[in-house]
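call fold(seq) -> tokens
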Amino acid sequence: MVQVVRSPEVVEAMRRLGAVLSTDLPDCAATLLVHGWDSPSLRELAGHPRDDPWRVDELWGLTLVEFGVDFVPSRAVWLGAAAGYELQLWRAGVQETYETMHRLLELTDWLPPAELPELQRLIGLGDEPSERRGNHLIYVDVQATLVALEQRLNRRVG
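ret:
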């Protein structure tokens, strides 16, 4: 699988949304180290065995403190981080367009926040009958909506 650059915020967002498990955190820590993130707890976590979820979670919490990641951000902040990660996977060619659409909607339990209207648009496109989803115009509309969401998320960060 292609590695997509991650940040502690994105990993925590994915963890809170159930897309990253405690057993995944040592690998995530190693990836963060490769991409220039560094702290004592992160280094220890990267080398820690997966089969000790209590200690893995403890080290991850210490890592977040070391990086100053807020433990109680709004749902929209976490969804934005997770959506950004899914869009990076899509851009890197790891995920197909419809797979990305469905993963984004699953992350929100099909109840996206009003702050991300592009996700509302994807719900409408996802409700299209399966025979219509093969239609090229719907495919292009999904791609355009993903690009619009990506641009909104990039404006938030920049």
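The chain has a mean pLDDT of 83.
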